[in-house]
Structure formats: C-alpha cells, structure tokens
Design brief:
Blueprint: H1 23-51, H2 58-69, H3 79-106, H4 119-149, H5 177-188, H6 197-222, H7 232-262, H8 273-284, H9 288-296, H10 300-311
Helix pairs in contact: 1-2, 1-3, 1-10, 3-4, 4-6, 6-7, 7-8, 7-9, 7-10
Amino acid sequence: MGTDPAPGGRGAAAPAMGNFQMEDFAAGWIGGAASVIVGHPLDTVKTRLQAGIGYGNTLSCIRTVYRRESVFGFFKGMSFPLASIAVYNSVVFGVFSNTQRFLSWQHCREPGASPSRTLSDLLLASMVAGVVSVGLGAPVDLIKIRLQMQTQPFQEGNLSLKPRAVALGEQPAYQGPVHCITTIVRTEGLAGLYRGASAMLLRDVPGYCLYFIPYVLLSEWITPEACAAPSPCAVWLAGGMAGAISWGTATPMDVVKSRLQADGVYLNKYKGVLDCIAQSYQKEGLKVSPTAVTRGQCQSLEGGSDILGYVRL
C-alpha cells in the first residue's frame, strides 16, 4: 500500500513526513465490505442471543431463525450495513493508519530514515480510531439492530409498551433502513440515533486498542525476517486472533450496547447504561458476560476478513 508499510508490515522507506494517504481509506472500505458479507449472519445470531428472548443457545437460535424466517432471516438488515459500514470501516482504518503514521514521524529526526513505531503510538492511534468509530458507527449499529430485532417476540408482562407496539406476526415497526431512520428521528429526535453511544464508547476505545495492537505484534511475530510484509495467510491468522482477543474483552459492553439499542423497537425497558447492567445482572448474574463471549467469538472471522481486505489492497 504505497511506500508506507501496512500495519504489521516491516516496511521500507516512507514518504514525506506527515504524508496523508488515501489508500488507507480505500483499503478500509474493501475490508469493511468483506467483513459485512462474511459476518452478518453471525452478527444476526449474536444480536438475537444478546437482546432477544426464547433462545436456548446458538444452535437453537440458528434453527429458530431459519424455521421462522428462512435463510433470508440471517441477512435481515444487511443492506444498510453493507452500504454504510464499508464507509465507516474506511474512516476507522484510515484514521488509525494516518494517526499512527503521523505519530511515528514525530520520533524520526533524520531525513530519509524510516519512521519508528512505538507501543504508545499504536495505543493512541487505536484510541482515536475508537472515538471516531462511535461518532460514525452508533447510528449504523442502531439501524442494523432495530431491523434485526423487530421480528422478535417480546414479553408484555410488567413492561410498559409504546402506543406503536405491534405483536409478532403483524406489520413490522420499520419497512426498511430509511423508514427506520425517519421513524427514530420523528419519535426520539436526532439524539435517538445515538442511543447506546456511551456503551459503544466504552466498548470501542479499549476494543480497538486490543484489536490493532495484537494484530500488529502478531503479524510481525509470524512474518519471517526476510519478508517485507506478511503473507495473506499470516494476515488472516493475525487478524482472526486479534479479533478474538478484542471481542473477548469487548463483548460484555457490547451486550449492554445491543440491549440499549434494541430497546425502543416496541418498548422502553432501560433508563441507561447502569440500569441496563443492573437489570441484566439481576436477571442473569455474571453469566451474562461469559456466555456472550462465546457467541461473540464467532465474529473473530470478521476480524480476519476485515484486516485481510485492508492489507491486501
């Protein structure tokens, strides 16, 4: 990717100091599209398990979705992420790479020398990417989850349903992504598009740190000294392992985010992040997080596809 090393590459000479590279954004777009295509069916199952009811385990969820909605049920709400997450991923990867490159050049004092890369540079670049991801990704995640969850059964007992609530099997609350956006803005205002953003911030800032840093370290460790850049197999393996590490730590807050964003399709159940954590703990105990980790680990496949599409552009 240009003359500057991709994350994980050993790299040769780099361009002029502070050079902004659009290739990083294009590569992120390709990686984002690949991750959506590979991971959306698993993401649908994950969301149903985290925020839905009536599923015993992963296989039970898969059978139930297929029986009720056929194979197309796994791809419900995919059109909006496919169109938007590619752009979102493009920005996140572009911001990370250019921030990391800029910070690395600050340590380079000799003209023509290759920039040095420190752990603190990777950490700061990952944190910046995490903050940016929330600003762009919160509405995308909200629309995707609302579309995924609107066919779910809900329990009316002890819950105050909204006037627009409809029963399962009747007309869905949303007819598509555009209708979903307009409905949320009309009923909840623009702030409604950022429901669950605080939980997403607590998920993404540490999550991206534990995604980008392990990927860079693992890909450099796997790649032989004689090679200038990691092979596609090394990229996929390092990306998958980094995705598993990231999701293993980010899943508890991802559960909270999913429940807050799904909240509001038919009913309002949670008052905020702390209330959601308290209610989840009261009903499910500490197992709410470990069980979700196993389900979220499936998305490590997305991590491999994501980073492979990015690096191999």
